[in-house]
Amino acid sequence: MGNNVFKATVRSVLIGYLIVLLLLPIGSIYVKGFSLGWQPFLQEVTGPLAWKSILLTVKLSIISTLIEAVVGTIIAYVLVRYTFRGKSILNSMVDLPFSLPTSVAGLMFLTLLGPKSPLGIWLDHMGITLLYNQTAIVIGLVFVTFPFVIRTVQPLLEQLDPGEEQASFTLGAGRFYTFWKIIFPAIFPGILAGSMLAFSRSLAEFGAISLISGNLPGKTMVASVYIYGETQNYNPEGAAAISVVLLTLSLLILWIINVLTRGKGRLA
Question: Where are the transmembrane segments (predicted)?
Fold first, then answer.
């Protein structure tokens, strides 16, 4: 009897936590976004600057996610398969973007690439600009989403028996064939899940991007910065409408991840 009461209490607390901290805030965004009706919602979303900010956000999030999928997979493979001095430090540094405030990350890139920094002066001399443009946004997104693919691929590589690779080499297969036929199928769920999480995170990034993008309307203004601008212009309905679009995309991505990885039980 007491055990049943305890289970019911824990279940009620968890459900209450879910409702108060997740469902109510999410629901309030949808309510606010559609508070003026369907037509005003569409007008807010399809406004020239709003729509351009959404398209720019999605485009640059896709680019950064593709970069992350490739680079993250390579780094995960190196961290699992190779032993070298400083490996433990590098492995712990992977999670730095998780713990670092994104505004600090933006300031880091401003300091590193600014016109008065040694690197910034050299880049300017070479005719290369890495601040206040779309390239800067991609750099910022890659940094803040850096751990996702690595941390989802690593456990799958650790579970993969190195003997399978050795057997492939013994039978005369090359490194590319071995990776494509043996390693890649095993880690693909991790690459997919990590990439989708990175994409979802990129859609919502604000701190770093607001400092290094320049926030030029129609050119470098992403959706999160547009939302902030709408709140400052006393247009909460417009901000909520764009938020609904980003939130719906994120929820859709999480649902796809759940469907694709259901029953695999192999992702960290």
Answer: 12-33, 54-80, 100-123, 130-150, 179-199, 240-260
Q: How many C-beta neighbours within 10 Å does residue 193 have?
A: 25
Can you give the three-state secondary structure of 191-204, one letter per residue?
Answer: HHHHHHHHHHHHHH
Contacts of 30 (CB under 8 A, 6+ apart): 244, 247
- Asked whether residue 23 is assigned to any structural domain, the reply reads yes
Assess whether 19 and 141 both reside in one domain.
no
Q: For residue 143, what are the domain limits?
A: 37-261
Structure-token match 């629901």, residue found: 27
CATH number of the domain encompassing residue 232: 1.10.3720.10
Total domains in the fold of the chain? 2
Distance CA 7, CA 28 (A): 30
- In this prediction, residues 99-113 reach a mean pLDDT of 90
Are residues 118 and 26 located together in one domain of the fold?
no
pLDDT, one tens digit per residue, over 212-264 is 998 888 899 999 999 999 999 999 999 999 999 999 998 888 888 777 766 55
253 is a domain residue? yes
